[in-house]
Amino acid sequence: MSTIWHILGAGSLGTLWATRLARAGLPVRLILRDEARLANYQAAKGLTLVEHGVEQTYPVIGETPHGPEPIHRLLVACKAYDAQSAVAQLQHRLMQDAELILLQNGLGSQDAVAAQLPQARCIFASSTEGAFRQADWRVVFAGHGYTWLGDSARPTPPVWLDELQAAGIPHEWSTDILTRLWRKLALNCAINPLTVLYQCRNGELQKHQCEVATLCAELGELLECCGQPAAAQDLQAEVERVIHATAANYSSMYQDVANARRTEISYLLGYACQAATRHQLTLPHLQQLQQRLIDQLVVRRLPRD
Ligand code: NAP
Q1: What is this enzyme's catalytic activity, as reactions (predicted)?
Q2: Whole-angstrom Cα distance, residue 194 to residue 296?
Q3: What is the pLDDT of residue 253?
């Protein structure tokens, strides 16, 4: 009998993983917040994934954090700001040899979870797949992509990568996952906050090329200082390429703000500015960008962290 995939968080990415694993015949359990969410989920009779306009419902078993089963494998699919407290609720069920896969964007939440569970193996992930929630328990697979997984403490890949293969989840084991996460964080810092400040699609940042270039120079300096020179390489060229390739898109931070949802700022620009302070590095434009973004969040009555 294969190990159960416990999935914490039945939002966009949690659903994307749960439905594909279940479709491949693998055992999956969804962990929902509480009895009320569980009752609501059970009334919906499963998770619906919409892919290429075709929808299919998967009756994945749901449970609350107080379920009886021990947990050997946990996919953490919450937002970065929820990850630590959501995992803490499951601490009593996590086995000594538990493996956690952390899907959170940005940096900071992964280390917080790992510090909370020194015995467990925490695998960090960085994904370019895209999905959004159309309604509760109904997710649209919007952008095909790739997920890189890695463990900077232990380079040996886990045995269950075969299961991802069987489930059709495109992935690669990465020996430099931190470099990938830093690079993604830098791209995010150079693009997403400006799309909120200028209220625009990614492509319109082509009109703000100088500002983008200045931010890339500061971010490059930060990456070098944080021991991530590979993540700094040709950063500006990649930022410009992403702005061009995703010109018609609204960034995830823009969408969070537009929908009055909390952003993950503390794990993105906030994390970058904190790292700069720790290294006594003065990055005036990045720090000013953080302040301007916080001011904008406050005006919109959204959390500033
Ligand atoms: P999401 O749609 O908001 O889903 C988060 C889920 O976590 C929600 O269903 C929420 O429950 C659940 N949750 C929060 N606290 C919980 C708790 N204590 N117990 C049980 N469930 C809990 O978020 P997402 O878009 O999947 O993003 C997850 C992470 O992946 C983020 O860091 C994001 O940046 C990253 N990411 C997302 C995408 C994407 O395309 N969506 C792509 C790449 C990376 P409720 O339903 O009850 O609120």
Answers
A1: (R)-pantoate + NADP(+) = 2-dehydropantoate + NADPH + H(+)
A2: 11
A3: 97
Mean pLDDT by 10 residues, the chain (305 residues): 94 98 98 98 98 97 96 98 98 96 98 96 97 97 96 95 98 97 98 98 98 98 98 98 97 97 98 98 98 97 96
**CA 80 distance to own-chain centroid:** 7
Q: How far apart are alpha carbons 275 and 222 in whole angstroms?
A: 8
Other C-beta atoms closer than 10 Å to the C-beta of 1 total 4
Task: List, in order of start, the domains of the chain with CATH numbers.
Answer: 5-175 (3.40.50.720), 179-299 (1.10.1040.10)
The pLDDT score that the predictor gives to residue 146 is: 96
Q: Which atom of ligand 1 is nearest to the CA of 128?
A: 43
Q: Is the pTM of this model over 0.90?
A: yes
To the nearest 10 degrees (0 to 180), the angle between helices 284-299 and 177-197 is 60
Do residues 61 and 52 make contact, with C-beta atoms less than 8 angstroms apart? no
Taking the C-alpha atoms of residue 231 and residue 220, their distance in angstroms, rounded to an integer, is 8
Pocket of ligand 1 (CB under 6 A): 8-14, 31-33, 37, 77-80, 82, 86, 89, 103-105, 127, 129-131, 133, 264
Distance 23 CA to ligand 1 centre (A): 21
CA atoms within 13 A on the CB side of 266: 12
